[in-house]
Specification:
The chain has one helix spanning about 1-20; strands at about 30-35, 40-45, 50-55, 65-75, 75-85, 105, 110-115, 125-130, 140, 145-155, 155-165, 165-175. It has about 190 residues and is mainly beta. A four-stranded antiparallel sheet has the order 1-4-5-6. Strand 8 and strand 9 (about 140) form a beta hairpin. It is globular.
């Protein structure tokens, strides 16, 4: 029991530290992450379909992932605003200059956004819209945790895809419901 309580305290401390250090990201851009479960490097391109200028190796540390702020998207590409490595890898070179690759591009594939870890009725859950507009029809509504793949952005809206009961769903997620933390949850905000 003591080990469990100690583990929870450590994870909570890491989580709070990670969220506090990343306040520079929050709210201004769509954020996404590249999971440490991925095995392929992230290629950073000079411009759309341009030459590769850097390769970010997959992270092998258990509690580390790449977190990206995205300012623009086009045809499956995402424009980088900044990158940080969180939470346990604070000594990573990228953290010394998070804007090192500002204005460069990455492919959207394998970039993830989660929704909060909820346990509510779907009618009270997170809404995915057919268009990036609160008056748009709903594509889906979920009361459970979902890991989604980022497709594109429009302002602070994220177009994402995910599967529900073996069926692919594509919808727009408003900024307040986007979570760029792979193993923790962001706060759920009701309408």
């Amino acid at each position: 029991m003591r080990k469990l309580i100690l583990t929870l305290i450590i994870l909570t401390s890491i989580n709070l530290s990670a969220q506090k250090s990343s306040e520079i990201f929050f709210g201004d851009f769509v954020e996404c992450y590249y999971s440490n479960k991925e095995t392929e490097p992230i290629l950073i391109y000079e411009n759309l379909n341009g030459k590769v200028i850097a390769e970010l190796k997959p992270l092998t540390e258990l509690n580390c992932w790449y977190k990206f702020s995205i300012s623009e998207s086009k045809d499956g590409w995402l424009k980088i605003e900044n990158i940080i490595v969180l939470p346990s890898c604070r000594e990573n070179e990228l953290n010394k200059n998070i804007e090192l690759y500002k204005g460069r591009w990455i492919l959207a594939s394998k970039m993830r956004i989660n929704i909060s870890d909820l346990d509510v009725e779907p009618k009270n859950g997170v809404k995915f819209y057919k268009k990036p507009d609160l008056t748009s029809d709903l594509a889906h509504q979920s009361g459970k945790f979902l890991e989604t793949e980022l497709i594109e952005i429009n302002g602070l809206w994220a177009k994402v895809s995910f599967e529900v009961n073996g069926i692919e769903v594509i919808g727009w997620l408003q900024r307040k419901d986007q979570c760029a933390y792979p193993w923790t949850s962001c706060l759920y905000q009701t309408d």
